Amino acid sequence: MRGLSVAGQLSAHLAGLCDVLGLDQSASIELMMDLLGSNGSRLLSEPPAWPSNVADDHTQVEYSLAFNGAEPPSLRILGEALGSPPSAQANMRAGYEFIDSQVTKFGLSTKRLNAVRDLFATEQPQGAFALWSSLVFRSGRTPEFKVYLNPEVRGVDQAPALVGEALDRLKLGGSYQSLLDRVIRPGELGLHDRISFFALDLDDGPQARVKLYLTHHHADVHDIARAARVVSGVDPSEVAEFCSLAAGTSRFSGRPLVGSYTLTEGSDEPVGYSIYVPIRSYVSDDQEARDKAVALLNRYGFDAGILDQALARLTQRPLRDGVGLIPHVSLRLGPPRPGVTVYLSAETYSVFPPRLKQIPAARSPVERGSTRTTATIR
Ligand code: TRP
């Protein structure tokens, strides 16, 4: 196995996932090869070329299955193109080169990306990434593309103004300030509440979206309900319940929850909201994560058997033997396709060991140090 290349491993995954979802394998594999570039030929036995933040083990791609009511689940790949040699600056360049090389082939529109590109491009990108791409595959359709830009690329304190300017240029800035005012916990902008991603669909249609993502560290269920409430048509208690069921708690003190607001032309207010729960941080092992994901899929009437089939194509290990195979689950509300998304890790470089079950805290203020285990944040 260790003689296998990154590209070999990831294309085997994709072939399996496409098989489960009834999708054409060659289209997704070819695109992923382009995204991996020369890094694809690295061996799995070598360390990752770059500590990509796409996945915990630094694999540069992450898969997801987007379940929705109207059509079979779609397959998505989130990925970071890497420069050779990789660096923050070189990766950003490689990301743009990847996108540019697909424009003609897939009839992408970079009009809106070009309108804001200079704001997010800097000599010394800061933060966890500069540019990620997302590829969406639906049966019988050409792939759809989205780019993720980092609002904190010029520093955390620059993010609010940077995003304000980007939205103004795209004529979507109308409700931005009031959104921040209503969602951000008092005094927490840039601290516990962060503007973490700015995403653009690379198409021109009337439905083309901008998505603004806010990350809420140490939030509780009320904070999340308040963040969801600002989008009309979204039931905050539904969002809160989804989070509590996914995480098994109402205080999210592990990895932060992330919310996204969908903005489209012609509406002054966000038209949709999604919540992303980093489920891996709130379970002991992947069996528990899988069971929770299945319960959530069932709750919304989706075919959870597909998730089990997909997991079996990614790994042969018992689910109890690791944690992180299902990094997030998300609930998507509003157009164009509400539903539930389950994220899947490639685990190319490592499998994280299961966490010890948490023993309820002792009542006395003195902790029984040796018997009380604390979940590590992952
Ligand atoms: N790995 C990063 C994280 O967990 C980024 C990321 C990848 C992410 N996929 C995601 C964040 C899905 C939110 C939702 O934060």
Structural commentary:
The protein has helices spanning 6-21, 25-36, 88-106, 111-120, 159-169, 176-183, 221-229, 236-247, 286-299, 305-314; strands at residues 61-68, 74-79, 131-137, 144-149, 193-201, 210-216, 219-220, 251-252, 257-263, 272-277, 329-333, 339-345. With 378 residues, it is of the alpha+beta class. The strands form two sheets. The protein has a ten-stranded antiparallel β-barrel with strand order 1-2-3-4-5-6-9-10-11-12, surrounded by nine helices. It starts with 5 loop residues before the first helix and ends in a 33-residue tail after the last strand. The relative contact order is 0.13.
Number of helices: 10
Which class of secondary structure composition applies to the elements? alpha+beta
**Beta-strand residue fraction:** 15-25%
Average pLDDT over all residues: 93
**Low-pLDDT sequence parts:** 362-378
Helix-residue proportion:
25-40%
Task: State the major sheet.
Answer: 10 strands, antiparallel, barrel
Number of E strands: 12
Oligomer: single chain
Give the overall shape, derived from the CA principal axes: globular
Strand order of the largest sheet: 1-2-3-4-5-6-9-10-11-12
- What is the ordering of alpha helices and beta strands? HHEEHHEEHHEEEHHEEEHHEE
Ligand list: tryptophan
How far is the N terminus from the C terminus? 26 Å
